[in-house]
Amino acid sequence: MGRIFRQIERHVGLFGAYFAQYAKVRVAYRGDFFITLGTSFAATLFSFGFVYFLFQRISYLAAWDKYEVFFLYGFSLIPFGLFNVLSLNLYEFGSTYIMEGKFDRVLLRPISSLFQVLFETFRIESFQEVVTGLVVVLWSARMLSYRWHALDVLLLAVFALCGAVIYISVFLFLSTFSFWFEDRIGVHPPFWNLIAFGRYPLSIYSGYIQFLLSWIIPFGFATFYPSARLLGHAEFRAYAPLVPLIAVATFAVAATSWRLGLRRYSSTGS
Description:
By secondary structure, the protein is mainly α. It is built from 13 helices and two strands. A hairpin with a 2-residue loop joins strand 1 and strand 2. The chain is globular and about 55 Å long. 31% of the residues are buried.
């Protein structure tokens, strides 16, 4: 048990060192950083603005009123932002690590290759999505006269972390395909587009789409079912306890695929 805690402490320390070092380098070029931050923030506002103006013409969406949809949309930005902070290497894994041979360098270090790939670089400007999401959640909750309790705050934090784990796990699993099929673009783009489906009530989609987003690519458990639980939609309440289980299961599948891919990996050679 003591060895496990020492390993956890070591990895937490390394994570802090990785993040601090990358943040120093990133903010050293202030102009580039603030332009990127502004662009990211503008894109977030534009996407939320679309939802806001949509509800200038309609009042309900599948029995969800506009402020409930705003709450859902705002919550979806929190795990998505956390995921975006860590996802840069996953999205570029095939081109950067496999095809350019940088994965050999990773394997030479005496630490988990998965840990290194996840935490070598960060997209720190995506923290604005977390902040924006929290602001939208608090604003929409106020408009709904939502009464926050300690349990609600705890559930919000747990659900957000689980949602980020689900996103990371899905795209980690997709990244492992690069061990078998070398391709610069990879299979990420179509799945990336599916993230947007989880920002709206799943009940507006057909049964096939609902099944896909719940049990095949579980983006619904990253955003919709947690929001439905927090908003008190009784018809979806039974799904909320499954959120942590889905997060653990998806990460276990992704980690297993990673280990299998490592066995398959062969160096780029000379």
